[in-house]
Every structure is written in structure tokens, then in C-alpha cells.
Amino acid sequence: MNEPKRSSRTYVGLYNDMYAGMTPIGNFIRDAWVFGILPEDETCDGWDVSRIQMLHDQVNAEWDKYSLRISNLPPELRERHERIHNEAIERAREHGWVAGQDIDSEMGDDA
Questions:
Q1: Is the pLDDT confidence value at 63 over 80?
Q2: Which of 36, 56, 62, 91 gives 20 a disulfide partner, CB atoms 3.0 to 4.6 angstroms apart?
Q3: What's the sign of the alpha-carbon dihedral 25, 31, 37, 42?
Q4: What would the pLDDT profile of 65-103 be if each residue is shown by its tens digit?
Q5: d(C-alpha 78, C-alpha 109), whole Å
Q6: 3-state secondary structure (DSSP) of residue 10
Q7: Which of 23, 65, 70 is nearest to 44 (CA)?
Q8: Rg of the Cα trace of the chain?
């Protein structure tokens, strides 16, 4: 039996995403938390593509202020970044994520 197709393109939410959000979208959602663009309980569940893109643009604008470098963040943002992303790594590991595994598997057996 075929699985039903989604009627609209919406995001599944950070914790429903692959490995509890260890994806590019998950990364900028967490960065939105770091910069205070979103509250830390906002997972973007059900957001449409245009809303996700607007968030991405806002996060990029914030990173541009710091030349895209964690080391350039003020101490309070750097500490928040470390906490949020370390928690995400732990959550992802609990869901079976292994750093680099997704990249290695895409390269095939000849890699």
C-alpha cells in the first residue's frame, strides 16, 4: 500500500526531524534560539517553506554581525550556543546519530 503524500510542504518540527533535528534546518533553528530570534521551546512544527526561509535569512543576518564565527560571539551568546548545540548533540546521539555517518554513507563504498 502506498503511503499518503503530504498535501503541503511544511516542516515536521525540530524534534521530529532526522536524528532529533541534526539537519541544516535544525542547526539554524537552534541558532535562532541562540540569537533570541525564537524562544527555545519553538520547534517550527508545521511551518511552511517561506516562513522557514525568512527565519534562515534572519539567522544569517545575525551570523554576519560576527563574521560567521563562534569565537566572535560575545561571551553570553557563545555560552548559549555551546549549551544549545551540546544538548542537541546528546539528543541526536540518543536517536542513533553518529557524527559524519550521513556524509560517509552518501559517498558510497568507494570512499
A1: yes
A2: 91
A3: positive
A4: 999 999 999 999 999 999 999 999 999 999 999 887 765
A5: 38
A6: strand
A7: 23
A8: 16
Question: Does the pLDDT of residue 108 top 60, yes or no?
Answer: no
DSSP secondary structure string for all residues of 62-103: HHHHTTT-GGGS-HHHHHHHHHHHHHHHHHHHHTT--TTHHH
Instruction: Name the grid cell of 7.
Output: 498535501
107: three-class secondary structure by DSSP: helix
d(CA 65, CA 4): 43
21, 92 in Cβ contact below 8 A? yes
Q: Which residue has the higher pLDDT, 75 or 3?
A: 75
Contact 65, 59 (CB under 8 A): no
d(CA 10, CA 75) in angstroms, rounded, equals 35
pLDDT of residue 2 exceeding 50: no
CA angle (65 as vertex; 80, 15 as ends), nearest 5: 40
